[in-house]
Amino acid sequence: MATDETMSPVVWVALTIDCADVEVQQRLRHFSAQALGGEIVSGSVRARGWLLIFDVIADDRPPTWPLGETPKQLHFEWMVEDLEAAVGTMLGLGATLAEYQPPRDCGSRVLLDPAGHPFCVATMAGVSPAFRNEASRQRR
């Protein structure tokens, strides 16, 4: 197995996220493009070197995480400078605050995107060292 990213024969370029219908698909596209500073290109969102693809799946059900019969299918970790400002922005774009929240002093909040997928916004202090290192690397 290659240990250096440049040696890998695989290039990770996209993530496909399931959603229930075309209306939710449209809301997810617009939410993600605005939240990540990206653009909608050929029905996908291009942001920060990635493509996010939203695929309509007839029997898709939003997660009931952290409890319930439908577990989370994915979980984004988004780093922010100002937690409260970022939460306000995400709410304004169509996210909702999840019922479950970590302790207020941990530097992160859990929100739900327009399809009900949980995601976190966190300050540098609110994440693991691996996340901090990756965020620093991406900012260079």
Q: How would a textbook summarize the main sheet?
A: 4 strands, mixed
Order of helices and strands: EHEEEEHEEEH
Quaternary structure classification: single chain
Radius of gyration: 16 Å
State the end-to-end CA separation: 27 Å
CATH topology-level name: 2,3-Dihydroxybiphenyl 1,2-Dioxygenase, domain 1
What's the helix count?
Answer: 3
Could you give the count of β-strands?
Answer: 8
How much strand? Answer: 25-35%
Strand order, biggest sheet? 1-4-3-2
- Morphology call: globular
Main CATH class: Alpha Beta
Secondary structure class reads alpha/beta
Poorly predicted residue ranges? none
Determine the fraction of residues in helical runs and give it as a percent range: 25-40%
The CATH architecture name reads Roll
Q: How many structural domains?
A: 1
Q: What is the average per-residue confidence, as pLDDT, rounded to a whole number?
A: 85
CATH superfamily: 2,3-Dihydroxybiphenyl 1,2-Dioxygenase, domain 1
